[in-house]
Amino acid sequence: MPKGLITSASSNLYQIEVENKIYSCTARGKFKKEGISPLIGDKVELTISNEEKSEGLIEQILPRHNEIKRPKMANLTQIILVVSMKMPSPDLLLLDKELVFAKWLGIKAIICFNKIDLSDPKELEKLSQIYKNIGYTVIETNATSDEYLEKIKPLLKNNITAFAGNSGVGKSTLTNNIFGKKLTQEGNISAKNKKGKNTTTTVTLYKYSENSYIADTPGFSTLELTEIPSEELYKYFIEFLPYLSKCEFRWM
C-alpha cells in the first residue's frame, strides 16, 4: 500500500505527496467515528482509486511523533520562531511561551530575529545574546535580503520546518524569498496599531528539497500553555534546569 505525506487540506479533501506526485484524497469514515482527523504533516497509507485523475483514499494514519494544535500540524521536526524587531515590536512573552511549548512537544526551536534592518543594533545584540546564552540557536535576518536568507537554508535540510510567530513578523516573506517565488500572501502592518494583519489562513507544506518541507502557518497573537500540567512546567524552561537542585522553593 502506497505511503505519502499530507501537504495541504481543504474541507475534507487532502493533498498527499507520494513519490513526488500529488494525489487528492478523502479519508475513510472510520476516522470520524474514532474522533481522529488527518493533519498536515501526517504520514499516511492510501489506496489509489484513480491514477489518471490522481485520486485516492486515506486508509491509515501512521503514528505521529508529535502534534501541535495551533496551528494544526503533525510530525514537525523543528520550528523557527520569527520575531520582528520593528512593526510589530518584539513580543518576548509570546516567544518564551513558544519556546516552552516546543520543548514540551519535543520539537527543536530556532529563534529568528527578523527585520533587523529596522532595529537598533545594540538592542538586537542584547536580545540575541540572552537567548544564545540559554542555549538556543539564534539567527538574524532581513527577509528581503539574500545574504541573510543563506543563514536559514542549511537549517532546512531533512526537516519539516514551521515558521511561527505573530502576524506581520515576516513568515510568509521568508517563505517566498527562500523559494524565490510568491507562494503565500504577504501581510501588511496596520497603520493604527502597528500590528500585523493575518493573511495566511491555512497550513500548507511546501517542498524545499528532498525530505525537506516548509510550513506556512496562520499567525497568532496568543498562546496558552494549558496543555502542560502546571507541576511539570519547570521542566521546559531550559535555563532553569542547571539550578533546580539548588532551589530553596518547592518546584515538584
Concise overview:
By secondary structure, the protein is of the alpha/beta class.
Write a concise keyword list for the protein shown above.
single chain, 252 residues, OB fold (Dihydrolipoamide Acetyltransferase, E2P), Rossmann fold, 2 domains, six-stranded mixed beta sheet, five-stranded mixed beta barrel, globular
Q: What does this protein structure show overall?
A:
Helix content is 18%, strand content 30%. The protein is α/β, with parallel strands linked by helices and 252 residues long. It has two domains: 59 residues, Beta Barrel (OB fold (Dihydrolipoamide Acetyltransferase, E2P)); 150 residues, 3-Layer(aba) Sandwich (Rossmann fold). The strands form three sheets. Strands 10-9-8-11-13-12 form a six-stranded mixed beta sheet, with helices on both faces.
| Helix content percent band | 10-25%
The radius of gyration is 20 Å
Write the CATH homologous superfamily of the largest domain.
P-loop containing nucleotide triphosphate hydrolases
How many structural domains can be distinguished in the coordinates?
2
Encode the helix/strand succession as letters. Answer: EEEHEEEEEHEHEHEHEE
Q: Which fold name corresponds to the CATH topology of the largest domain?
A: Rossmann fold
**How many helix segments?**
5
What does the main sheet amount to?
6 strands, mixed
CATH class of the largest domain: Alpha Beta
Going by CATH, the architecture of the largest domain would be: 3-Layer(aba) Sandwich
What spatial form do the alpha-carbon principal axes imply?
globular
Class inferred from helices and paired strands: alpha/beta
For the termini, the CA-CA separation is 47 Å
Uncertain ranges? 187-200
Q: What's the count of strands?
A: 13
Mean pLDDT: 86
Which strand order spans the largest sheet, edge to edge or round the barrel? 10-9-8-11-13-12
Strand content: 25-35%
